[in-house]
Design a protein that fits this description.
- The complex is a heterodimer of chains A (196) and B (407).
- Chain A has 196 residues and is of the alpha/beta class.
- Chain A folds into two domains: 123 residues, 3-Layer(aba) Sandwich (Rossmann fold), CATH 3.40.50.2300; 56 residues, Arc Repressor Mutant, subunit A (Orthogonal Bundle), CATH 1.10.10.
- Chain A has nine helices and five strands, in the order βαβαβαβαβααααα.
- In chain A, strands 2-1-3-4-5 form a five-stranded parallel sheet, sandwiched between helices.
- In chain A, helix 3 runs parallel beside helix 4 and helix 5 crosses helix 9.
- The longest helix of chain A has 18 residues.
- Chain A is globular, with a radius of gyration of 17 Å.
- Chain B has 407 residues and is an alpha+beta fold.
- In chain B, 69% of the residues lie in helices and 10% in strands.
- In chain B, 32% of the residues are buried.
- Chain B has eleven helices and seven strands.
- At the A-B interface, helix 1 of A face helix 11 of B.
């Protein structure tokens, strides 16, 4: 079961660029939601509520991101990643009440965002007790690629790093999951780290 | 020492209002006067009724002092009771002390003055009425019933009585007026002080506002400059690219940045710091885009009929970017072989709805969703969502985009 990542961001061009980055990494993305109302409506409409909410603090509507995150956590069990330009103590305190996995400050880099998403999935795996040590079946090349993914590099960046095409990287990544019967890449990274 | 005595008798400033304190003081001093009167009347061997009246006055004013000072109660009713009691005691005393040749009326006038000072304004007429009518009645009764009058035994007795009462009532009137004056001066001083403080605060706030305003202007200026730098970077880089598609992509990016920079420029140049005049902005933007594709300013016709032309920046930027995408599209793709190319930009208000229409008389969209145009159109869709608006596309045969949003 591959749960989605809900993007909550009222600047839709930014939201689109986040969504595109995540989709490129084969994550399932829902949203974007501009306001708390929209976010809750999306959660209600989905069959599986989102696993992770990527949440801006300053959003449209009366309920701010920090307040929304608390609701998403308690009602839908979402793990929270804040993505915001605010670094003042008041915002931080309000935000940390929902025990976020990560507080990413804008302007963010793709690596920061992808690492945060991976950590959030790791937290979920730990919670689900899905941590049985397994032997992973990986070739040397695949292990190398998985290592880069664990560092937060996107497929595009890995392709550039290894001087191969992006499609090749994606194929490698898909095969790793299939071979080891794992649903998403953060899980694989999690198991890989366990082995090391 | 005197001050401490005053506070001891009248009460402290925290628990007792000014008028209340004067009432306390008056009832105390009148009690003392009544005791003194009782003793003197008795010792001088005046009519025994004067001794009893003085005792009555002592009891009443002592009781009032107890209620007001010890029980800390002060009300208009108390003032009326005191006034009536004064008349009930002093009225008969008037006749026993030589009537109008005696000093009783001085006492009544003294009490009238003090009560007028401390009474609430609505009550003043009543107090004045009670005392005025009583004094007049006493004089009238004196005229018609001369037999009621007990004359002084001697001239020296009469003068002694006058002197005692005169000293007493002059002193007390002076004291109360003096206390009033001090209180008034103090209040004036406070008001003056507060006025100076308020003026200071106002001046500081105004200066701060001007400073904040200049900071905001400075901020918009810097944002605009930074966007300008980004635009120039894109331009410089695109000049060095061989690949035509890559060059075009950078140029597109540059024109988007320019559209945003233009808004920030307006924000620091106009009077309004958080909104822009949408008509001026759209005209400037569209003429600049027309120019960059080699079309004359006359090829863009803007018609804007709305009730409020000042648009908040949150709304002006998406609208600016939409206009940028759509008319860029028109100049790029629509006018091949068209002799008199025109782009119409209309922004109309109908009730509480706002409609942005961008249409051209070009060749229309032949190749839907083809290649490089799609990102621009995707952007338009995102921006339409951003505005909570709805998009409608018409072909006839030029292209017309209608974007409806709430005003």
């Amino acid at each position: 079961m591959n749960k989605s990542i809900l993007v909550i961001e009222d600047e839709l061009i930014t939201a689109e660029s986040i969504a595109e980055l995540l989709r490129d990494e084969e994550y399932l993305v829902s949203g974007p939601a501009k306001s708390a109302d929209e976010a809750l409506a999306i959660c209600d409409s989905l069959q599986h509520s989102p696993a992770i909410a990527l949440c801006d603090i300053n959003i449209k509507g009366k309920v701010n991101g920090a307040e929304l995150a608390k609701q998403l956590k308690s009602r839908f069990g979402c793990e929270i990643i804040f993505l915001t330009a605010y670094t003042d103590t008041g915002s931080l305190q309000a935000a940390f009440e929902s025990e976020p996995v990560m507080y990413v400050v804008k302007p963010y880099s793709d690596i920061q965002l992808l690492v945060a998403v991976q950590l959030a999935f790791h937290k979920i795996l730990k919670k689900e007790n899905n941590t049985a040590v397994r032997k992973l079946d990986l070739t040397q090349r695949e292990r190398e690629i998985a290592g880069w993914v664990a560092e937060g590099l996107s497929s595009k960046q890995i392709a550039a790093q290894l001087k191969i095409s992006i499609e090749t990287v994606k194929t490698h990544r898909r095969r790793m999951l299939q071979k080891n019967n794992i649903s998403n890449f953060p899980h694989l990274v999690y198991l890989l780290k366990d082995h090391i | 020492m005197l001050k401490r005595l005053y506070y001891l008798i009248a009460g402290d400033t925290q628990n007792y209002g000014f008028e209340h304190r004067i009432f306390n003081l008056s009832s105390f001093i009148i009690t003392v006067f009544c005791i003194q009167g009782t003793l003197i009347n008795y010792l001088l061997g005046l009519h025994i009724a004067t001794v009893w009246l003085a005792i009555g006055g002592t009891v009443i004013s002592a009781t009032l002092f107890y209620i007001a000072r010890v029980k800390a109660m002060f009300s208009p009713a108390l003032l009326i009771v005191f006034s009536i009691a004064a008349i009930v005691i002093l009225g008969p005393l008037h006749f026993f002390n030589g009537a109008s040749s005696g000093p009783t009326i001085y006492l009544l006038i003294m009490m009238l003055n003090i009560f007028l000072l401390i009474a609430p304004s609505g009550l003043q007429v009543w107090i004045y009425g009670i005392f005025g009518i009583s004094i007049l009645s006493m004089l009238v009764l004196e005229y018609y019933f001369p037999g009621w009058i007990t004359a002084y035994a001697s001239a020296s007795q009469r003068i002694a009585d006058h002197i005692t009462v005169m000293i007493y009532s002059l002193f007390f009137t002076m004291l109360v007026i003096r206390l009033f004056r001090i209180s008034y001066d103090r209040e004036q001083q406070t008001i003056l002080q507060q006025k100076i403080e308020l003026e200071d605060a106002y001046r500081v706030t105004t200066e701060k506002n001007i400073y904040i305003e200049s900071l905001i202007r400075e901020l918009h200026h810097r944002v605009k400059n930074n966007l300008q730098v980004v635009s120039s970077l894109l331009s410089l880089q695109s000049n060095r690219l061989e690949d035509e598609n890559a060059r075009k992509a950078l140029q597109d990016g540059r024109s988007r940045v320019d559209a945003m920079a233009m808004i920030h420029q307006r924000l620091y140049m106009d009077k309004q710091l958080a909104s822009v005049n949408i008509q001026d902005y759209i005209e400037e933007l569209s003429v600049s885009i027309a120019g960059s594709y080699g079309y004359s300013p006359a090829s863009v016709i803007t018609d804007i009929v709305i009730s409020r032309e000042d648009f908040d920046i949150d709304r002006a930027i998406p609208i600016g970017l939409i206009v940028n995408e759509l008319i860029t599209n028109a100049f790029k793709h629509a006018f091949k072989g068209i002799t008199d190319p025109k782009v119409h930009i209309n922004l109309l208000q109908e009730g509480d709805m706002l409609e942005l229409r961008i249409s051209d008389n070009g060749t229309g969209m032949k190749t839907k969703d083809s290649g490089p145009a799609t990102f621009g159109i995707k952007l338009v869709h995102i921006l339409v969502d951003q505005l909570d608006a709805r998009l409608q596309v018409l072909n006839h045969p030029g292209t017309e985009y209608r974007i409806k949003m709430s005003a």
